[in-house]
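Our consortium's second objective concerns turning raw sequence data into structural hypotheses that experimental partners can test. To show how far this objective has progressed, the report includes one record in full. It was chosen at random from the queue rather than selected for favorable results. The single chain below, 214 residues long, was entered without modification.
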Amino acid sequence: MRSTLFLVVLLFFFSECKHKQTHEQKKKELDAGQLSEKNIYTVKEVGWTVQIPDGWQIITKKEQSAMNEKGEKAIEETTGQQIDVSKLVDLINFKKDIFNSFLSTMEPFDEKKDGSYDQHNITIHELLKNTYASQNIYAEYELGATRIDGQMFDRFITKVYSPDKKHIILNQAMFSCLINGYDFSMTINYNNDTDKETLMNVIQTSKFSNVITQ
């Protein structure tokens, strides 16, 4: 189960950064992948390489753990079932502030055992909608697709509104693809055009190598 769904009840969870992280501090917050001195992040399992924007902070393991825990609880309350996240791997997760962030995950997925990947995505999208609704959060949704460095990604956009439904307070875009036997996803959250441009540049300049055709 993608940890990106855990943002459902945590739109304002992140604390403000108090200091600039050193390169070594950033590396210590990673569970997978490699981060170079030039802030280039790579994950060999899915052949992903991406440039992390300057000035953005890596989300700490403590923040990620608390976010995952609360998100799991919200989803389990919505579905009435326990969810298994034992095989989910958090990749690079970073933020500028409480409204603008980037999350990425990968999780093994075998269509022979786990069923259709397209149906899996539909299930994820419906769960996201239902969980937002259960938290009395009004949102609008848009489904599409886009190609990133030759790989076709499903794109699921969410616009979260203020309680009076007059203003968009947060935009969320989830990009997901089955790569090398992994359900790989990138999710961006933003509330202004400048940070949207920065985050979309991260998405669009992502590179994929050694990809096995599914």
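The partners drew two points from this record. The chain has five helices and twelve strands. The chain has one domain: 3-208. Both points have been shared with the crystallography group to help prioritize constructs.
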